[in-house]
Amino acid sequence: MTTIxxxxxxxxxxxxxxQRKSNRLPSRWKRIGEQTYCSVCIRxxxxxxxxxIRVAAIKDGTWExxxxxxxxxxxxxxxxxxxxxxxxxxxxxxxxxxxxxxPAMPKIYLYPEARGLYPDLPxxxxxxxxxxxxxxxxxxxxxxxxxxxxxxxxxxxxxxxxLPNQAWSVEMEDxxxxxxxxxxxxxxxLQLRGTQAFRRQIKAVRxxxxxxxxxxxxxxxxxxxxxxxxxxxxxxxxxxxEAPQRQGILAVRSTKESLLVATNAKDDKxxxxxxxxxxxxxxxxxxxxxRWADDTKSEDRPVPAxxxxxxxxxxxxxxxxxxxxxxxxxxxxxxxxxxxxAQMRYDDSETGFCPSFPWFSLRRRISVKCHELxxxxxxxxxxxxxxxxxxxxQREGDSNQYLGSRRA
Length: 408
What we know:
Blueprint: E1 30-32, E2 35-37, H1 39-45, E3 46-58, H2 63-90, H3 111-117, H4 123-147, E4 161-163, E5 168-173, E6 176-183, E7 186-192, H5 199-211, E8 213-224, E9 227-239, E10 249-253, E11 260-263, E12 269-273, H6 276-295, H7 307-339, E13 343-347, H8 359-373, E14 376-379, H9 389-407
Parallel strand pairs: 10-13, 13-14
Antiparallel strand pairs: 1-2, 3-7, 3-9, 4-8, 5-6, 6-7, 8-9, 10-11, 11-12
Helix pairs in contact: 2-4, 6-7, 7-8, 8-9
């Protein structure tokens, strides 16, 4: 087979050293129009976003038929995900006496077997699912194989049904976004919500159609007001807005008296977020959980009479916490944008104000918002996970759909 010429980045002139035998681009490289860009130039020009909008109507079918098709896809996706995870563990290496280093993971190709076991899943979905499950397994592999400190991850129904970028499209019809995707044995046209509450998502969809690069699409289920709703998550690379001339560093740290405090170069407080409501919410929720735990007797098992109230309280608490994280991050990054600082130095090593608060989720959200606006982010905490900003944006969408699947 003849080799293809080396790929050259149109932005920085960097070339891929590998002589490739196909037209596939190197990992993390993207093609914009007729130009090809490396991962560094892509991050300078585009920002990764997860656009999540609720499905409002079915354009070419009924809700009953659509729900039947999605039930089959979610069932098959859940079963296939658990099968793939088990096979990766069974075919991986095992720690033996005398080993001092975890061996590399062997090459495992599950697509042909998965296609035979789950024929109802589209081929593109099986390929995307294999990559997703492998990433999940690789992240847990050290604790699973070497330390024996974690159990094998499992997937619960309804595991999101995923499609790669080639298997779906989106367009605007009557100022409403309409997604066309292959689900089962046919294509479906799904009309998404276009109300004022989704104005920012609609703006992002318009950018995706005009100048963006689409990624994967996930369909998953959440419970809203006691009813199951289908959510559509579109991963997209969107053009980055031109940032003004920035200078200076904004130092942000957590304290025992307030959640976050920002200081200038002279170490003077210029911004404070107390968030006293967080401690009240956590205290109320923990107190109620303890009282329910006291009332859980052997005679009430396996399902106590107050199980529905406990589930509703957990859902309310998670919604409150997620909303607070988004509001705090937007407020802090908005202040940094207004001051036109070039970099944010973030330190949340002091957790005395609210020890049980999900500090990592807040740090991750702030990092994503800074990346979107072109503000440098430096995490000065004691324990920091080094993850690219675009991967953090992907995780934001994954965490939302995870919470949704758990509530369902």
